[in-house]
Design goal:
Two copies of one chain form a homodimer. The first copy, chain A, is of the alpha+beta class and 229 residues long. Chain A folds into two domains: 144 residues, NADH Oxidase (3-Layer(aba) Sandwich); 57 residues, no CATH class. Chain A contains nine helices and five strands, in the order H-H-E-H-H-E-H-H-H-H-E-H-E-E. Chain A is globular and about 60 Å long. The relative contact order of chain A is 0.23. Chains A and B meet through helix 1, helix 2, strand 1, helix 3 and helix 5 of A and helix 1, helix 2, strand 1, helix 3 and helix 5 of B.
Chain lengths: 229, 229
């Protein structure tokens, strides 16, 4: 499908038909998700494709049994897992060392990434340091706390989620991103570490043309959101 | 451009050529951004297109003068502004009342949204309540604090950012999402309320084919990120 047609075709669908979604459709959308830009290319995201009927039932309940989950053919849980930096950062160091990147970039991965992801318990100290330096010159104010790091990871996972949802639309199926879920129960179900965050659950299926949405897509006054300064 | 070609064409570009980006290209990408899915359709996002040469220079400095900002033709700052719910929620109530949505949906916008966005100072109380109920049945554990609400808003703004970046790629130009900036200075420059969060700065231009990237796109072992359960 053409790109802008895909953007227009995507709607959040709350009821799906009984038509199955071919495996290849999901796999292709997952491939698209993994090509999203992300923080320092550390790819601290995970995509749980919940296929076991028993787990699926539990996930539907954790999504408060909303119809977007209940009538879905497939369910994917997007997770931010900052701990993946331990696997991906050494690979980034290898890559950067192999190309003609400025030396500063190598130092960034060798020194700054471990300090940021590994030493979040020093958050108060970092906060004071960054804000003191910030009085004199521009400096990034974060991430300092572990919550800040989760936030960075969640943003990247959201970028990937959008790729995933658009890629499903481009193949003629529909999605609904859900934030109304019981994070504790989802984490227990997927055996996630307490350091992770559940970014969203995405349901997939064929849109029920009559009852998939409540009406036309609603977008408000563009001037409320777009500012030229 | 075809959708999957667009996904593959998008790379984060760190050096741009001197070629100007037509205004229509940015406007079209902003339109695409505004069509992203978002939390409760409250559209709590803002896109600052920084055009004044003086502000642009200050923004480049706040982005630590990195080449992705310095060589950019256009700069857009994506902001999460939860306070926009005050404008958009009444409009959602009007819309929901005008269509055949379940009564529960109307109640959600009339009662639950104001309680969530307006009463975040009750966070500790909400946390205890949600977690107590959660012992017995599935319930959303958040958002409770104002930080939680910002997080929800940032996720939605990230979904929109991905639409924006893909839409630029679909038109033959390139982007770089930047998180390495001085949030305090960016907020001061754009006169943002202290309740907002700067999600990312996105630079736009024509990719310098030789020096825009450090090499091929790096993606790690798919099995690290995709889990079938």
């Amino acid at each position: 499908m053409e790109f802008f047609d895909t953007i227009k075709a995507r709607r959040s669908i709350r009821k799906y038909t009984a038509k199955a979604v071919p495996e290849e459709v999901i796999e292709k959308a997952l491939d698209a998700a993994l090509l999203a830009p992300n923080s320092s290319n550390l790819q601290t995201w995970e995509f749980y494709w919940v296929r076991s009927p028993e787990k699926k039932q539990k996930l539907i309940e954790a999504c408060l049994s909303q119809s977007a989950a209940r009538t879905a053919q497939e369910l994917i849980v997007v997770v931010a897992n900052p701990a993946l930096w331990k696997k991906t950062n050494p690979e980034m160091i290898k890559f950067i060392a192999s190309v003609k990147a400025p030396k500063l970039v190598l130092t960034y991965y060798q020194k700054l990434v471990p300090m940021t992801y590994g030493l979040s318990f020093l958050a108060p100290l970092k906060w004071i340091l960054f804000n003191a330096i910030g009085l004199f010159r521009p400096i990034t104010r974060g991430p300092v706390s572990f919550r800040d790091i989760q936030e960075v990871s969640m943003k990247s996972a959201a970028l990937a989620s959008e790729n995933f949802m658009l890629a499903i639309s481009a193949q003629g199926f529909a999605t609904c991103p859900m934030e109304g879920f019981d994070e504790r129960r989802v984490k227990k179900l997927l055996k996630l570490s307490c350091m992770t965050r559940v970014v969203m659950a995405i349901s997939v299926g064929e849109a029920d043309e009559k009852r998939g949405t409540w009406g036309p897509q609603v977008r408000f006054n563009r001037e409320w959101f777009v500012k030229k300064v």
